[in-house]
Write a structure and sequence with these properties.
Helix content is 73%, strand content 0%. By secondary structure, the chain is mainly α. The protein has a single domain, classed as Rhomboid-like fold (Up-down Bundle), CATH 1.20.1540. The longest helix is centred in the middle third of the chain and has 26 residues. It is globular, with a radius of gyration of 18 Å.
Length: 204
């Protein structure tokens, strides 16, 4: 797959375009930039912020860290899926992670605006962990009940979230993204039919 056709590279390009727009609008009006690119309750009032907040970043360091993580996981996952499925998955998980962050924040206190792709990137890592043949083999031997599988998913998501614990970090978004990724990986929702058939034959 050429670089221009790589959904990972395309996502990085979207990061850069959105960040450039953010920077330009900040020079004109900081409140306008916040209104356009950050996700805050009630989310139905500014629906455009649902997708834009996934690709927006607070600063260059934020953008760089998410870009590096995206490259690591994205280039591996894109080999077993299509461009459309990759983008749909990334955006959906990112939105779910952001909404869960502002919703739960609102339940326990005052909801803070959020932005960034880390929830979606955590979704890629969760998928990578749960959707590979080694995970299939290990979990197959354990023969866990459905309740046991849920406990494992929550425990892994909790541990992954702890690794990023720091002031100002959207931990709920990280937890949600990773948990969704683990479930999606177990279901192999990104794997295309031809890839699944090829893998089955290789195992035989």
């Amino acid at each position: 797959m050429g670089l221009s056709r790589s959904p990972t590279v395309q996502t990085l390009a979207i990061f850069c375009v959105v960040f450039a727009l953010q920077s330009a609008i900040r020079l004109v009006s900081l409140p306008l930039a916040v209104s356009l690119f950050t996700l805050a309750p009630p989310v139905t009032v500014r629906p455009w912020s649902l997708p834009l907040s996934v690709y927006a970043h607070a600063n260059l360091a934020h953008l760089f860290s998410n870009a590096i993580a995206l490259l690591f996981a994205g280039l591996l996952i894109e080999r077993v899926t299509t461009t459309m499925r990759f983008h749909a998955y990334f955006l959906t998980v990112g939105i779910l992670a952001g909404v869960s962050q502002v919703w739960i924040d609102g339940l326990v206190g005052s909801a803070r605006p959020v932005l960034g792709a880390s929830g979606a990137v955590f979704g890629l890592f969760g998928y990578l962990l749960a959707g590979n043949p080694m995970a299939d083999a290990v979990l197959g031997k354990l023969r866990l009940s459905r309740r046991g599988q849920i406990v494992v998913v929550l425990a892994l998501a909790f541990l992954a979230t702890l690794t990023t614990a720091a002031p100002g970090v959207a931990l709920i978004a990280h937890f949600t993204g990773f948990a969704v990724g683990l479930i999606a990986g177990r279901l192999h929702i990104l794997r295309v039919e031809t890839q699944a058939t090829s893998n089955d034959r290789a195992v035989q």
